[in-house]
Amino acid sequence: MCANTRPAPPRPDAQQLPQARPAVDDIAALRARTMTVLQAAADDQDAAVADTLHAALAAGPTAAAASAVAAGLLRQGHAELARDWLATALGLEPDCLSALLLRASCEILQGEPSRAIATYGHIIDRHPSDIEACIELGTLLTNARDWEGALRATQLGLARRPGTAALCARRIDLLLRLERDDDALQFLRTLPPAVCADPAMAHARVSLLNRSGQFDAARQVLDASVADTVALRTFDLRLINQWLTSCLSGAQGLAHFPAQVARFSAHLSDDRRYQGLLAAYAMIGAWLHADRAEVVRIAELHADFADMADIDEDRAMRVFYRYLRQLAAACPATAADASRPLALLHVIGESHSLSPGNTVFAWQGRQVQARSRFIMGIQMHHLAQAGQNTYKQHLQSHLDAIGEGALLLTMGEIDCRPVEGMWRAAQRGHGPLDALIGSTVAGYLAFLDQALRQRPWPSITLQGVPAPGYDLTDRRDPGDKRGFLDMIDSVNTLLKAGAQERHWHFLDVHGATAGQDRLGNGRWHLDRFHLAPAFYQQAGHWLLQAPRPAGGDGAPT
Question: pLDDT tens-digit profile of 479-522?
Fold first, then answer.
């Protein structure tokens, strides 16, 4: 599902879309069996389905009638009967639109997205004017991270119905994912004001404005859209993600973060997916407030969230939910040595900054209390870019808020994943991999040179990139596994050299986590990506001290 190029959506095979026309006697037998089940249930809604059955089939069996019966049965939980009626509908008319749409919905519910993709492809071939198939196909391919395929499906939909706000928003989102920012901005400029003002466009406009450096305009759109969504109760997962991410990632937003989460939660009491999404954010906020008990409490209330069907809009937050739940369970109860005063270690980065948070451990000859300063999704790539962006702003806000304490920077692992970052950028033709590695690490270090020079620091440490804790199979198969692992080695080598050149420290987490095959050795990973808090109790074994400046005795910064 993650190939760079994709042929036209495959058509379902004959087994998937039955061609054999059902016999009249078979339909009569199915009708009798269905009536027996509905009458036995003695339920008003089942009786309504029975009425639908009589009305739909009064003029004789048709595909549309059989599809209507299948839909009613499915709503009432009679899944087996619904499948039989659906097969009947497609047997009567293999290209019946209502039956095909229902079949695709069933395939999604059954956890068979590849079959649903094939079905929607068949619908697009046979019913070119149907916009729903284009929208749903784009959603499935987006969930599968096939940005190119999703973009093609979205453009098909827009060709059939130009100006559809939901499709325009998805096109912008996909162009941004493909790092085609200029194309996204140009497309936005072509849209009529009425389309731009549509609530479905809000999240795309915010993303694009932020990416193009128009931060004040982005914030105005986000503020107004959130106010509207609360007032109208028309919630958009992506918009909520943008708002809460913004609040959570800056140094000033954390104080009021619980109230921000509660504001949304009060309006979404009946939706378990929304509640789970908000719970994951609340768990991060509680962890940053050093409230382990609250993390545990929230996790127990929303245990169903981690197992919900996968969708793109909340995939990351389900990962966070599981991660925070494991962090709270694994956080060591390490007591500080009262005879030695604690120093602060500010850990700035993405999700990797959370693992050492709230723990006490030995660090460069002193006991420290680690304090996480979290910026959602920040990468070396973001800091290496020319000009301003929201990630740079958030990082600067944390640096400005630090009164005292040393620094540990935990960025780079996202840049080194097989499905995103530098590896995927090279596959998409953004440049040779070695050149991307060199420019990304050099740009990251150059940004830090400027951002950290404004004040002296007791110490600065760069954390390297750990060995992958996941198997390089299925969706995460990079193709060239050796080349992928070489990339991680190269990044660590450059980070280590950059730290030593600047008289900073380097935490060699790759040396700690890599086995002989250069994959995770299973010793220090908490999950497939993150380090266990216990690692930092032993981190001194892999901490490469900064060389002292020539001709001086001062502490390295």
Answer: 999 999 999 999 999 999 999 999 999 999 999 999 999 999 99
Residue in the structure block whose two tokens are 């709270």: 328
Residue closest to 322 by CA, chosen among 306, 298, 311, 301? 306
Kindly provide the residue ranges of all beta strands, DSSP E only, lying in 300-413, ordered along the sequence: 343-349, 360-363, 366-374, 406-410
Torsion angle defined by CA atoms of residues 36, 37, 39 and 44, in that order, rounded to the nearest 10 degrees: -160
At 406, list the tokens.
Answer: 């040393």
Q: Which residues contact 249 (CB under 8 A, 6 or more apart)?
A: 374, 375, 376, 378, 390, 394
pLDDT band at 129 (very low <50, low <70, confident <90, very high): confident
Distance of alpha carbon 537 from alpha carbon 303, whole angstroms: 29
What are the Cα distances from residue 349, in Å, to 88, 250, 354, 363?
56, 12, 8, 18
List the beta strands (DSSP E) in 102-249: none
Say yes or no to pLDDT of 238 above 60: yes
CA–chain centroid gap for 9, Å, is: 24
Residue 20's identity, in one-letter code, is A
3-class SS at 463?
A: strand
Q: Please give the model's pTM, rounded to 2 decimal places.
A: 0.76
Element (H, E) at 506: strand 505-507
